[in-house]
Amino acid sequence: ILLTMMPHGFKSSKQDFTFGPWKVTASTNHIMKSKDIERLADEMNMPSLPEMLFGDNVLRIIHTDGYGIEFNAIDALKIVNKMEHAVKVACAQEWQESRMDSEHSKEVLKPYDWTYTTDYRGTLIGEDMQIQVTKTTERIDLEKLKAREQIMFFDEVLLFEDELHDHGVSMLSVKIRVMPTSFFLLLRFFLRVDRVLIRINDTRLERIICCESLAHVKNVPAALYTDPNEIAQYLTLKLTDCEKLELPVRQPQTVKEVLQ
């Protein structure tokens, strides 16, 4: 593990873990500099990007044949709705006006999803060999996940976070744990707009979207609103979209490989 201290108390690290033909890489770095965030916002045609944007953070799973999947903030932000607000509340206008005098301001404030809600499910890797994504009726074996197995590797990578000008939080993170018989990965987008709603978009093998107006969340301690793991059980399931990642079949390249 390579570990160095960065300014503002953030740690820069890179962890590699190999199991069978797979290699997991978890890299964390410091928050992007303001000038780089501003340049990126221009490229994406967005007036602003999350306050805490970790553009160099990545969680990557690669097969020895060269294909795989990775999770990064830039690709996640590319599919944020750039044309309209996802949540139209009084504080949205207040939040936008507060940023007009910031270093990231533009002369004309463009409409966009100020909550940075993203439907990101990861970025496929592999030019010659590509993973195929297909619809499926299969589900995660929850009983297998409950089994007590040795955790050989674990890491969590924060991709971006924004406090929505003290009106809540928008956060995207990914974590992985590797056991002797399998690995489990969870990409989670968590959004809380104070006094308005809470939304969780989870990507595992399944795509699960939960969202609930706070007016409908009854008898729940307010302290749980800040904990995605705890509040998730009180949210209404809006969508389950199940897909299967079909791994490419490598063709033998030599007579020797054919004979083997």
UniProtKB/TrEMBL annotation:
<protein>
    <recommendedName>
        <fullName>TIP41-like protein</fullName>
    </recommendedName>
</protein>
<comment type="similarity">
    <text>Belongs to the TIP41 family.</text>
</comment>
<dbReference type="InterPro" id="IPR051330">
    <property type="entry name" value="Phosphatase_reg/MetRdx"/>
</dbReference>
<dbReference type="GO" id="GO:0031929">
    <property type="term" value="P:TOR signaling"/>
</dbReference>
<dbReference type="GO" id="GO:0005829">
    <property type="term" value="C:cytosol"/>
</dbReference>
<dbReference type="Pfam" id="PF04176">
    <property type="entry name" value="TIP41"/>
</dbReference>
<dbReference type="InterPro" id="IPR007303">
    <property type="entry name" value="TIP41-like"/>
</dbReference>
